[in-house]
């Protein structure tokens, strides 16, 4: 057990920073030291921003996104195509799709994917609201933007079953060779999916 | 400690930021967990998908440690499991059932059965028959095997058409006729290994479902999984006349 080099407040700060993704104890010390050195320019605004965000962040009751208002900014954006609904597993996936800027539709965040061995069943996901939204909003197409994993696609099949009665077009993202991917380095599963999903030139 | 064995990936849990804890059904050592360093990386993700068969080398200082796995792909089945709903639901159900096995208890028969089923699972028509066979094998491995070779009442090996819901033993047509409404139908393919009509597969799934529920799941406070119901529904759709 290394000896503490600073008071309990600073040690606690380091311990909390070390719990952030991508940071271990050493990098947490570096981050803490950087914040301490820039107390006025960085630490104070960061603390204020975090306090402010903590008090205001809410989960959108409509789609499951996180924002400072409910319904969220995306749900209230009238320029989005309401006939399409994009289903994602997590808020991180929503942000990734928004970054790409290829869709102009509202989202529905499930809060994970089915994983029975981890104890995640249908009742743990935001599925009931999805079915309600599809019926109430007269959605024409549901895009299942879920990960290309067995759990992700099992969830996609489950949702397809749930929406069978809604008579809505259900699509999923294509799977295959990533941009910049060389065939030599691809795994057999990806190659197999890419060959099956080949398109005519 | 070190050994190398074949294993089928049942599940993967992220451990910390870069590692993963992988649960395998190994051929000689049963359900066995181990950590894969860098298992949460993008490079390892295609290999560490449920349903794949891998060659696993396990190392640990002591036998009771969780230990580390070094894995190499042997059979990659991800594409089929992701594409076919009945295969995805069927595998999920089988993995859940295999989770009931005690850790590190060898079940080579189940390993071979699961591998053979996964290799043929793409064929929708045979998927129902294969799942029923898996459930029969699982019941037997858990000590609740059904006796479908001789009649429980007369000892006869002929005309076995029913199964008792209480004893799990076959009953012949003559002895079972007065109680037919309370007995399960015994699908011929479970005894003879012939290709069954869809109705027989329905009977087989009803039979194995009943014994899984009453003998294995209910005593543990569990019920038949959503994945099994979803499999049956997907399989029915695929075999329904157009």
UniProtKB/TrEMBL annotation, chain B:
<dbReference type="InterPro" id="IPR012340">
    <property type="entry name" value="NA-bd_OB-fold"/>
</dbReference>
<dbReference type="InterPro" id="IPR022572">
    <property type="entry name" value="DNA_rep/recomb_RecO_N"/>
</dbReference>
<dbReference type="Pfam" id="PF02565">
    <property type="entry name" value="RecO_C"/>
</dbReference>
<keyword id="KW-0227">DNA damage</keyword>
<dbReference type="InterPro" id="IPR037278">
    <property type="entry name" value="ARFGAP/RecO"/>
</dbReference>
<dbReference type="GO" id="GO:0006310">
    <property type="term" value="P:DNA recombination"/>
</dbReference>
<keyword id="KW-0234">DNA repair</keyword>
<protein>
    <recommendedName>
        <fullName>DNA repair protein RecO</fullName>
    </recommendedName>
</protein>
<feature type="domain" description="DNA replication/recombination mediator RecO N-terminal">
    <location>
        <begin position="1"/>
        <end position="68"/>
    </location>
</feature>
<keyword id="KW-0233">DNA recombination</keyword>
<comment type="function">
    <text>Involved in DNA repair and RecF pathway recombination.</text>
</comment>
<dbReference type="Pfam" id="PF11967">
    <property type="entry name" value="RecO_N"/>
</dbReference>
<dbReference type="GO" id="GO:0006302">
    <property type="term" value="P:double-strand break repair"/>
</dbReference>
<dbReference type="InterPro" id="IPR042242">
    <property type="entry name" value="RecO_C"/>
</dbReference>
<dbReference type="InterPro" id="IPR003717">
    <property type="entry name" value="RecO"/>
</dbReference>
<dbReference type="GO" id="GO:0043590">
    <property type="term" value="C:bacterial nucleoid"/>
</dbReference>
<comment type="similarity">
    <text>Belongs to the RecO family.</text>
</comment>
């Amino acid at each position: 057990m290394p000896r503490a080099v600073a008071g309990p407040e600073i040690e606690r700060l380091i311990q909390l920073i070390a719990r952030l993704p991508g940071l271990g104890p050493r990098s947490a010390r570096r981050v803490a030291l950087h914040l301490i050195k820039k107390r006025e320019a960085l630490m104070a605004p960061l603390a204020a921003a975090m306090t402010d965000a903590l008090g205001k962040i809410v989960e959108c009751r409509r789609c499951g996104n996180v924002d400072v208002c409910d319904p969220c900014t995306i749900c209230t954006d009238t320029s989005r195509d309401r006939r399409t609904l994009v289903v994602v597993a997590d808020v991180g996936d929503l942000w990734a799709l928004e970054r790409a800027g290829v869709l102009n539709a509202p989202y529905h965040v499930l809060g994970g994917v089915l994983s029975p061995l981890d104890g995640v069943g249908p009742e743990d996901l935001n599925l009931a609201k999805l079915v309600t939204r599809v019926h109430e909003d007269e959605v024409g197409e549901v895009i299942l933007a879920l990960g290309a994993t067995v759990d992700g696609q099992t969830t996609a099949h489950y949702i397809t079953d749930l929406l069978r009665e809604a008579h809505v077009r259900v699509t999923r993202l294509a799977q295959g060779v990533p941009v910049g991917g060389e065939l030599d380095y691809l795994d057999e599963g990806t190659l197999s999916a890419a060959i099956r999903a080949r398109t005519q030139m | 400690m070190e050994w190398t064995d074949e294993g089928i990936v049942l599940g993967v849990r992220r451990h910390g930021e870069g590692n993963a804890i992988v649960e395998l059904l190994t051929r000689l050592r049963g359900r066995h967990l181990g950590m894969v360093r860098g298992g949460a990386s993008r490079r390892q993700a295609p290999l560490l998908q449920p349903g794949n068969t891998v060659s696993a080398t396990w190392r640990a200082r002591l036998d009771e440690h969780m230990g580390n796995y070094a894995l190499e792909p042997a059979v990659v089945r991800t594409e089929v499991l992701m594409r076919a709903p009945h295969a995805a639901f069927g595998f999920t159900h089988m993995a859940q059932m295999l989770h009931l096995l005690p850790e590190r208890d060898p079940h080579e028969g189940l390993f071979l059965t699961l591998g053979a089923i996964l290799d043929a699972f793409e064929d929708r028509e045979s998927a129902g028959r294969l799942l029923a066979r898996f459930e029969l094998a699982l019941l037997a491995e858990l000590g609740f095997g059904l006796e479908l070779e001789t009649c429980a009442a007369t000892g006869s090996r002929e005309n076995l058409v029913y199964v008792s819901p209480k004893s799990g033993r076959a009953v012949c047509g003559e002895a079972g006729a007065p109680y037919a409404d309370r007995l399960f139908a015994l699908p011929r393919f479970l005894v003879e290994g012939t290709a069954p009509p869809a109705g027989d597969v329905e009977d087989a799934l009803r039979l194995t479902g009943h014994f899984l529920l009453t003998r294995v799941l209910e005593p543990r406070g569990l019920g038949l999984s959503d994945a099994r119901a979803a499999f049956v529904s997907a399989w029915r759709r695929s075999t329904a006349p157009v």
